[in-house]
Write a structure and sequence with these properties.
- The complex is a heterodimer.
- Chain A has helices at about 5-10, 15-40, 45-65, 70-90, 95-120, 150-155, 155-175, 175-185, 190-195, 200-225, 235-245, 250-270, 280-285, 285-295; strands spanning about 135-140, 155.
- Chain A is mainly α.
- Chain A has one domain (about 5-295): ABC transporter involved in vitamin B12 uptake, BtuC, CATH 1.10.3470.
- In chain A, strands 1-2 form a two-stranded antiparallel sheet.
- In chain A, helix 11 crosses helix 12.
- Chain A is globular, with a radius of gyration of 20 Å.
- Chain B is built from 14 helices and two strands; from the N terminus they run ααααααββαααααααα.
- By secondary structure, chain B is mostly helical.
- Chain B has a domain at about 70-315: Orthogonal Bundle (ABC transporter involved in vitamin B12 uptake, BtuC), CATH 1.10.3470.
- The chains are: A mainly alpha, B mainly alpha.
- The interface between A and B is large, with 55 and 60 residues.
């Protein structure tokens, strides 16, 4: 068989698409958070740090409570608290949102390693028991469907949750009054304020939501996909999620498509030995594709009009 | 107070206040987790400045290490500060630094037999050009398509990181024998250290070879001076500052917006690429896996903000972060507190400068709030959208 035949064959295997969906969901959750935050007008490049914090606290809580659900909740709260810092600094203190985002990411990288050192000394963090991991759920009946059953109905519980959140985010943003308000605050906060919409409350809510979703992704990574925490284990996923958000033109469904493309790339080179190209070269692809997209070569990607601008009541 | 002193004092208030804020909050974090913040800071002081050492560390060695860390920070700091003045946020100093290190290594290995008077300029210029090219991509995209430089430089950082891994893990630059490292650069490509690196003479109680302070410090200080002169004494500097004030006004004043954006990014990238080349030529003499987790270009953001975008300020801010970096290692070995506390402190400094906590507190205190505050560092990131949605119109079309 030629290499092309082999790749085509690989693309027809259910294993590949099962791995693709799982990899995509790791990116989708922070990407959805980014979409919500930026649609409300707060630039968020801090998903990486919020996810990393979530991953650490998921493992910490899981080792303590031996319960993945409590651990996931703790991870979400940890991600949400990091987001709260970003929100306070960006909204209340009107700081540069990019500097704040960078600070969050540096803070998370430093804090997690500092805490490992304080809590576990020179030892590793430790591994969680299989029984305390986020479980894979095989949907009875549906999982028996050839191909589709394995891809869609034999996944980690967080994958199902993420798909529900994807639909929910899309519906809320584009089909509800709340979504209209979030978007109006991100496009023209002065007009929204005049219409009686609480700009600050919506922006706080949106940023904190991005932290909850990123924390959830961190939990999935640490106690679903993996079973321990290692420093910098998010490995740029928060930034790929940022790329997916832009690639998807600040829409949930667009971001999901981007996540599938990026996830497919990851699944292909981690699940086979056919492709001779270096995995390091392939790892560049999400970033290069995103550069091509923001350069406007494949349709222009335009952020919300007030994205990144602090709102000052009474200003023009 | 004489007006000059008062102006300097006011200018120093934000950076000094931010650093104090970071140390107080960082100290609280250490205390909350059950360790003694004074032990931690004693370690930092020892490793950074060679003072108050608990374990008889050699002071001269600590200072030497701090300066070694300071050198690339000055140049990457300039690489962030210059675009800041033009209203551009270069988060890509890290990628440009890596590009410079790659080019320096590739040239230094390929042409290793060349004599130093040819090879040393070749690796340094090669590194600067590679950094300029890397940043130039973001500049051209910004100028012609409006693609925001924050996003493009983040992406370029990752492309550079993966390119580095590709090249030294099984790629063409790998050292034969299977390490995650490149072959060493030729002897002629190395920047000399101040003390002979092959000497066993005892200097300050240790063999001279352990002191790694190298002549790159001269290049770094020149870079900071060039930055100051370029910004304040040249017409390009005027155009850069005009652009940072208002793109529209700059255009009416006859500044070519596109050209200035591209040139600014090219120069910034050259500084950062030069930093990467100097780091290879002066310290590491080849690429290693330690560059996978390098943060010089990210630290540069804090350096540029803390240095208030002035040449002298950047040198002092670099010294601070160089000392913290060096101090972290001693803090970890002496006080048992992870050197990553330094990252926490750095993040706190960033928060404090960006949010201007100090200014907010001053406004709460009657009597203090009326004083004209020091000029805050420009915050071009806040203008993420003003130009992002549309390509920069060339002059005449607006």
């Amino acid at each position: 068989m030629t290499a092309i035949d082999q790749i085509l064959h690989l693309l027809l295997t259910a294993n590949l698409w099962q791995a693709t969906l799982a990899a995509a969901v790791l990116l989708l959750l922070p990407a959805l958070g980014g979409v919500i935050s930026e649609r409300s007008g707060v630039v968020n490049i801090a998903m990486e740090g919020m996810m990393l914090t979530g991953a650490f606290f998921a493992v910490y809580a899981d080792l303590h409570f031996q319960n993945p659900w409590i651990a996931t909740l703790v991870a979400m709260v940890a991600g949400g608290l990091m987001a709260l810092v970003h929100a306070v600094v960006s909204i209340r203190f009107r700081a540069d949102q990019i500097v704040s985002g960078i600070a969050i990411n540096i803070f998370a990288a430093g804090l997690t390693v500092f805490l490992i050192n304080r809590l576990y000394g020179v030892q590793d963090v430790g591994h969680i028991d299989q029984s305390a991991a986020l479980p894979t759920i095989v949907v009875p009946g549906l999982s028996g469907i050839p191909f589709i059953g394995q891809v869609l109905f034999n996944q980690n519980v967080i994958v199902y949750v993420a798909i529900v959140l994807l639909v929910l985010t899309h519906v809320v943003l584009f089909r509800t009054r709340l979504g209209l308000r979030i978007r109006s605050v991100g496009e023209h906060p002065q007009a929204a304020d005049t219409a009686g919409i609480n700009v600050f409350a919506l922006r706080y809510g949106a940023v904190i939501t991005s932290g909850l979703l990123s924390g959830l992704a961190g939990a999935f990574l640490a106690i679903g996909v993996s079973n321990t925490f290692v420093p910098n284990m998010t490995d740029g996923r928060g930034y790929i999620a940022l790329a997916a958000m832009i690639f998807g033109k600040w829409t949930p469904l667009g971001a999901f498509i981007a996540c599938i493309i990026f996830g497919l790339g990851e699944a292909i080179y981690s699940n086979n030995s056919i492709i001779q190209a270096s995995p390091y070269l392939l790892s560049m692809l999400p970033y290069i594709l995103t550069l091509v997209v923001i350069a406007g070569l494949i349709g222009r990607s335009i952020p919300p009009a007030a994205d990144g601008l602090p709102y000052v009541p009474g200003s023009e | 107070m004489p007006p000059g002193v008062r102006r300097i004092a006011q200018g120093m208030a934000i950076p000094v206040g931010s650093v104090l804020f970071a140390f107080v909050v960082g100290g609280l974090l250490v205390a909350v987790t059950g360790a003694n913040p004074l032990d931690a800071y004693q370690g930092l002081l020892c490793g950074g400045l060679g003072l108050a050492c608990a374990q008889d560390e050699n002071s001269a060695l600590q200072i030497s290490n701090s300066i070694v860390y300071t050198i690339p920070l000055i140049m990457t700091g300039v690489a962030v500060a210059l675009p800041f003045r033009a209203g551009l946020f270069n988060i890509g100093a890290e990628g440009q630094f890596i590009a410079g290190a790659l080019a320096c290594t590739a040239i230094g290995v390929q042409l290793s037999t060349w004599p130093a008077f040819l090879l040393l300029p070749a690796v340094l210029i090669g590194g600067a050009l590679a950094g300029a090219a890397w940043a130039g991509i973001a500049g051209v995209l910004k100028a012609f398509t409006g693609a925001h430089e924050v996003v493009t430089t983040i992406m370029l950082n990752y492309v550079a990181q993966w390119l580095l891994r590709f090249l030294i893990i099984g790629g063409p630059l790998q050292l034969p024998g299977g390490f995650s490292a490149s072959s060493p650069i030729g002897a002629g490509a190395r920047l000399p250290t101040f003390l002979p690196s092959n000497s066993t003479d005892i200097v300050f109680g240790l063999p001279a070879s352990v002191y790694r302070v190298h002549t790159g410090i001269i290049i770094a200080v020149i870079a900071a001076a060039v930055f100051a002169v370029l910004l304040w004494r040249t017409s390009l500097g005027y155009e850069i500052r005009a652009l940072g004030q208002s793109q529209r006004a700059a255009r009416y004043a006859g500044v070519s917006v596109r050209r200035t954006i591209i040139v600014t990014m090219l120069i910034a990238g050259a500084f950062s690429g030069l930093a990467g080349a100097v780091q290879i030529a002066g310290v590491d003499h080849g690429l290693t896996d330690k560059y996978f987790s390098d943060t010089t270009g990210f630290d540069a953001i804090a350096v540029a903000l803390l240095g208030l975008g002035s040449g002298v300020g950047i040198v002092f801010a670099s010294l601070l972060f160089g000392a913290l970096h060096s101090g972290g290692a001693v803090m970890q070995s002496d006080a048992g507190i992870s050197s990553s506390l330094v990252l926490v402190l750095q993040a706190l400094i960033l928060f404090s400068i960006a949010a201007n906590f100090l200014g907010a507190i001053m406004r709460q205190i009657p009597g203090l709030g009326q004083r004209p505050s020091a000029p805050a560092p420009t915050a071009p990131g806040a203008a993420l959208v003003t130009d992002a949605a549309a390509p920069v119109p060339e002059e005449g079309t607006a």
